[in-house]
Amino acid sequence: MRANTSTTHVRLVLVSLADGTTDGVPVGCYLAAYDPEGNDGHGVASWTQDPDEALTFATGAEATACYRTVPHARSLRADGRPNQPLTMFTVMLA
């Protein structure tokens, strides 16, 4: 997925890691790119402080679908639950 320049305005903003910690994460940054298949299905995300460089979505549902994407390369976690790499982060829609 790549940043686009359409007129949509829903973006994912990083709040923390899923456990609530913020050490080493770019809190307040926008999701700029995401490849759920990257890193052998563990996902690769990049973040930006510039909202103009962020991925944008037409609706909150589309942003949520991106957040919950399950990669084909690794569809399940070790515990048998769906692998959704971005859910290692807590995000908010903006």
Write the layout of secondary structure elements.
Blueprint: E1 12-17, E2 30-35, H1 38-41, E3 44-48, H2 60-67, E4 89-93
Antiparallel strand pairs: 1-4, 2-3
Give your account of this protein's structure.
With about 90 residues, the chain is of the alpha+beta class. The protein contains two helices and four strands; from the N terminus they run E-E-H-E-H-E. A two-stranded antiparallel sheet has the order 1-4. A two-stranded antiparallel ribbon has the order 2-3. The longest helix has 8 residues. The protein is globular, with a radius of gyration of 13 Å. The model has no long low-confidence stretch (mean pLDDT about 95).
Write a brief caption for the model:
The protein has 94 residues and is of the alpha+beta class. It has one domain (12-93).
Question: Whole-number radius of gyration?
Answer: 13 Å
Q: What letter string, H or E per element, gives the SSE order?
A: EEHEHE
Please indicate the count of domains. 1
**Biggest sheet, in brief?**
2 strands, antiparallel
* Structural class assignment: alpha+beta
Strand order of the largest sheet: 1-4
Per the principal axes of the C-alpha atoms, what is the gross shape? globular
Helix content: 10-25%
Counted beta strands: 4
Let me know the average pLDDT.
Answer: 93
Distance between the termini: 18 Å
**Count of DSSP H/I helices:** 2
Beta strand %: 15-25%
Regions with little confidence, pLDDT below 50 for 5+ residues: none
